[in-house]
Amino acid sequence: MERTSERAREVDAAMADIRAIEERDGVTRESIAAIRARLLQLAARTDLFTPEDFPPPGEGDARNSCLYRLHEDEQHRFALYANSTSGKRSSPPHNHTTWAVIVGVSGGDELNRFYDRTDDGGVREKGQAVVRAGTGVAFMPDDIHSIHIEAPVLNFHLYGLGLEQLTRREYYKPAEHAWSVFPPHSDIREARPGRS
Ligand SMILES: [Fe+2]
Question: Lower CB density within 10 Å: C or N end of the chain?
Answer without folding.
Answer: C
